[in-house]
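Audit log entry. Action: structure prediction of a protein-small molecule complex. Ligand: pyridoxal-5'-phosphate. The ligand was supplied as SMILES and no pocket hint was given, so placement is left entirely to the predictor. Protonation state taken as written. Sequence taken verbatim from the request; no trimming, no tag removal. Recorded inputs:
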Amino acid sequence: MAEQGKQGGTVFGPGYVRAISPYVAGKPISEVAREFGLDEAGIVKLASNENPLGMPESARRAVADAVAELGRYPDSNGFALKGELSARFGVPADWLTLGNGSNDILELAAHALVEPGQSIVYAEYSFAVYALATQEIGARAIEVPARDYGHDLEAMAAAIAPDTRLVFIANPNNPTGTFVPAAQIEAFLQRVPANVVVVLDEAYNEYLDADQQYDSLAWVRRYPNLMVSRTFSKAYGLAGLRIGYAVAQPELSDLLNRIRQPFNVNSVAQAAAIAALGDAGFLRRSAELNRAGKRQLTDAFDRLGLEYVPSSGNFVMVRVGDDDGAGARVNLALLKQGVIVRPVGNYNLPRWLRVTIGLAEENAAFIAALERALA
Ligand SMILES: *Cc1c(COP(=O)(O)O)cnc(C)c1O
């Protein structure tokens, strides 16, 4: 007989799926306009760590050309894009896996490497998708307490259990913006057992300052249990197209390639990514704009006496009050003024908001709205 739900209806799916809290995305502009009776044109969205420059012009042209071929399936193996990535990073094409966003890569890793009941290690306050990827396969989460809102890699190494098969590390981390220096990551990799795969999620890698940059692909050559994931959604400005990639030795890459959907990355995304990858000027402008915008925001937080976590990404997490209602309250006050940021109560950070660094005028609009919200 079928299991019965609370109201007597049939219950579908395993308990570990029913226990999942759905991912909370940044509110779309159109939804805020409807809910608060605002004009879409006046709304500032700093909620999803998108590139405020939008997509590069080079990618826009590539998209226009690729549209003509949309009657056909995409190249399942992403030959052209993998060729470009391969040349850029000096790794063979069979070390690369393309994903429908790097989110896809994170889920593929969990599905390919972990059995139900085995464990996955990740840090408190790290990217929400790690918890989702763990839950959706019925794995056990080992969430390691953060240190100063970031990864405590010594504690994470110590937390690895005999049944641990995967570790997620975000560097820089979202939503807190913290950064783990290269030496600490390398020390961690040396400690991790050979049968435990480390996914080093570098979604914000392209925003790192020169003195923070490190060669994670050299580690991929040295550690067969390391996978580096990157995305075209953030600095490359292609969030809407959904494309990211993983770099790992062939034994690991092969597993991801077996279980991914054959056409998981569409042809328009592949064409745009090739163009964006070659657009060094756009990447440089994005990083420069981000650096200036970060200073604009943190100067304002200093002036307003607000605590924030120093960020290495394209966003800053700021504490907007001393009580657990503060994040939701200030968020609502901002929404009413047409400014969308990201409350992080779902990360158990109810006093904080995460603000994406926007154009100078968007940052200024946010700061002005924040001052009114706090007044
Ligand atoms: C944004 C983000 C991603 C993935 O974004 P995609 O759009 O799926 O590529 C992955 N990891 C972190 C930490 C992120 O913030």
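Audit: result stored. The chain has two domains: 24-54+281-374, 57-277. The first strand starts at residue 44 and ends at 45.
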